[in-house]
Design goal:
Elements (H helix, E strand, L loop, with lengths): L8 H17 L2 H7 E8 L5 E3 H9 L4 E14 L3 E14 L2 E16 L2 E11 L5
Protein name: Nuclear transport factor 2 family protein
InterPro entries: DUF4440, NTF2-like_dom_sf
């Protein structure tokens, strides 16, 4: 059940920071709680995963996050939801080796009666800085 209540910026930043920490720690249980069952995760490569596909890829070692940072975070109140945008830098380990990702991220967080969950994440690559 969705509760129609305004999201506070501090709430959004708290859950996003918890998600980023869980990503780098490989904490799939926390990610499972923070990500809505209906969520879509659009990677900087353009690949789209459901929540379950994304978590399965992490669980099977298709990739893992060695480090993730979020810079210039900005929230927009959408009532029972909020949009969070920021610049992400990530070091992702694939079976073929590490890959550095620099992207602009938009995350949509929605408040439910039992917490705040990620509904959508869109990651757009930013060209390498000269």
């Amino acid at each position: 059940m969705i509760i129609l209540a305004t999201m506070q910026q501090s709430d959004v930043l708290e859950v996003e920071n918890a998600r980023l920490m869980a990503m780098t720690e490989g904490d799939l249980d926390t990610l499972d709680v923070l990500i809505a069952d209906s969520a879509l995760y659009i990677h900087s490569s353009g690949e789209i995963d459901t929540k379950h596909e994304y978590l399965r890829k992490l669980a099977t070692g298709r990739f893992r996050y060695a480090a993730v940072t979020a810079e210039n975070q900005h929230t927009t109140d959408l009532g029972a939801a909020a949009a969070l945008t920021y610049r992400m830098r990530a070091r992702v380990i694939f079976p073929a080796g590490p890959h550095l990702i620099h992207a602009q991220v938009t995350a949509i967080w929605r408040r439910y009666d039992d917490g705040i969950r990620l509904e959508l994440l869109q990651s757009t690559p930013i060209p390498a800085e000269a």
